[in-house]
């Protein structure tokens, strides 16, 4: 996990997840919620945000080993902008079969606190 360049002024982290195919799934070890087509009031991390959020991380799975956490907001996946994506499109970009490594740019609220702004 490394600090990434800000996207639109938002500080982000870079996370690389190597897929571990299991059965018919992509083998990333996490679930997502949200999207511009979903009801943002059901988002437990940011009830007014239509972004794509990590809802669950499988213990000892690829995402957990890479440092992904529930509540992380996914801004990009392998260069694809997910800030205005539907839920279905986000799944499509995250599970592309030809890509063995998924490079995510994520926003995590505590990034702001660790960058010298303890009042947030």
TrEMBL record:
Please cite one Gene Ontology biological process associated with this protein. Wnt signaling pathway
Q: Which InterPro entries match?
A: PDZ, PDZ_sf, Synaptic_Scaffolding_LAP-MAGUK
Instruction: State the annotated membrane topology for this chain.
Output: Peripheral membrane protein
Residues annotated as domain PDZ: 14-101
Indicate where this protein resides in the cell: Cell membrane; Cytoplasm; Nucleus
Cite a single Pfam family from the UniProt record: PDZ
Say where the protein is mainly found: membrane
Ordered alphabetically, the record's keywords are: Acetylation, Cell membrane, Cytoplasm, Membrane, Nucleus, Phosphoprotein, Wnt signaling pathway
Q: Name any GO cellular component annotation.
A: cytoplasm
Signal peptide positions (record):
none
What is the protein's name according to its record? Tax1-binding protein 3
**Organism in which the protein naturally occurs:** Branchiostoma floridae
* Lineage, uppermost ranks: Eukaryota, Metazoa, Chordata, Cephalochordata, Leptocardii
The record's gene field reads: LOC118431868
């Amino acid at each position: 996990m490394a600090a990434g360049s800000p996207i639109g002024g938002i500080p982000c982290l870079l996370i690389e997840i190597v897929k571990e195919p299991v059965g018919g799934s992509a083998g990333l070890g996490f679930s997502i919620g949200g999207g511009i087509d979903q009801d943002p009031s059901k988002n437990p991390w940011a009830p007014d945000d239509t972004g794509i959020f990590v809802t669950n991380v499988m213990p000892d799975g690829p995402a957990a080993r890479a440092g992904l956490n529930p509540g992380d907001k996914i801004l990009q996946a392998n260069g694809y902008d997910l800030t205005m994506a539907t839920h279905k499109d986000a799944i499509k970009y995250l599970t592309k079969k030809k890509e063995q490594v998924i490079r995510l740019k994520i926003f995590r609220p505590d990034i702001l606190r660790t960058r010298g702004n303890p009042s947030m």
